[in-house]
Specification:
Layout: H1 5-11, H2 13-21, E1 33-36, E2 41-44, H3 52-78, H4 90-138, H5 146-163, H6 166-174, H7 181-188, H8 196-242, H9 247-283
Antiparallel strand pairs: 1-2
Helix pairs in contact: 2-5, 2-8, 3-4, 3-8, 4-8, 4-9, 5-8, 6-8
Length: 284
């Protein structure tokens, strides 16, 4: 069956927005999970050369922010490092705890997505797209929910245009108020963290570190938009087709029943995981 542009755009809309905005940004670069224009799919493929920017940002964030942030939290609560002279304020400690909880929650959700991508998600997307093509052919445009895909695509574009600038916005908000861990690291080195050179170094490191976190959040938003679009479009076209008393309507009704039965186990696992992460974030 030939792939047509409207079907690709309406089905993969949020991922297309991700490819056009996030992947083309000079800050973000290439990611192991990316949109392949030749295959018209989201592909999971790791290459050291291709993903060099991603690995650089990830290593920078780990060494200059995640590890120092954990050390500062442990030092504040448990005084595990008596040789350190660092004493962060209480509001900074609370801020770091909240940020770490959010980071761990986002990473847990994203790693779970990566873990089941090849074994479940990729195959499920293919099955759903084949059914979507069949529904698309027999449902008139006014009855297939195309306006829903257009609205979700527009919302994804707006959010991603914000997220592509979010590392710079967070840097502008955190650096002047000394909320970055590198402020205390540089202070411990007995160098003025407010000098021009130190501020530039802190700003660059903060932007690089925040980039990958913003990317993960943006991809999860796109995946959520994709699922919402898929669910709403399927339900609308299912309702249209189910009201038809013809063999094609009954055949597609059976296909939809089989598809939802197959999804039940995966959906239950995903919902359970989301509830666990939400409970963890609520407790923290």
């Amino acid at each position: 069956m030939t792939l047509t542009s409207p079907q690709i755009t309406e089905f993969f809309g949020p991922f297309l927005a991700y490819a056009n905005i996030i992947e083309k940004s000079f800050l973000f670069g290439r990611f192991p999970l990316y949109w392949d224009n030749s295959k018209k799919r989201i592909v999971l493929h790791f290459s050291f050369v291709r993903n060099f920017t991603f690995l650089t940002n990830l290593g920078t964030g780990l060494l200059t922010y995640f590890i120092p942030c954990c050390i500062l939290i442990l030092q504040y609560k448990l005084k595990l490092f008596p040789f350190l002279r660092i004493n962060i304020p209480r509001h900074v400690f609370s801020f770091y705890v909240v940020v770490l909880a959010l980071v761990m929650g986002l990473l847990a959700m994203f790693l779970s997505i990566i873990g089941v991508w090849r074994s479940y998600t990729r195959k499920e997307i293919e099955r759903s797209f084949l059914l979507f093509q069949r529904q698309f052919q027999v449902c008139p445009k006014k009855e297939n929910g195309a306006d829903i895909s257009a609205r979700i695509y527009m919302a994804a574009n707006i959010l991603l245009k914000l997220y592509v600038k979010l590392p710079l916005i967070l840097t502008a908000l955190c650096i002047p108020f000394n909320m970055d861990p590198m402020f205390y690291v540089i202070t411990e080195m007995r160098v003025s963290p407010r000098s021009l050179g130190a501020v530039l170094v802190r700003s660059v490191l903060f932007v690089l570190s925040a980039t990958e976190l913003c990317r993960v959040a943006a991809f999860i938003i796109c995946l959520t938009g994709f699922v919402l679009n898929l669910g709403r479009r399927e339900m609308i076209m299912w309702t249209t087709i189910a009201g038809r008393n013809n063999p094609e309507g009954y055949h597609l009704y059976r296909c939809i029943s089989i598809l939802y039965t197959f999804r039940r186990r995966g959906t239950t696992l995903v919902l359970s995981f989301i509830l666990m992460v939400g409970f963890f974030l609520q407790v923290n």
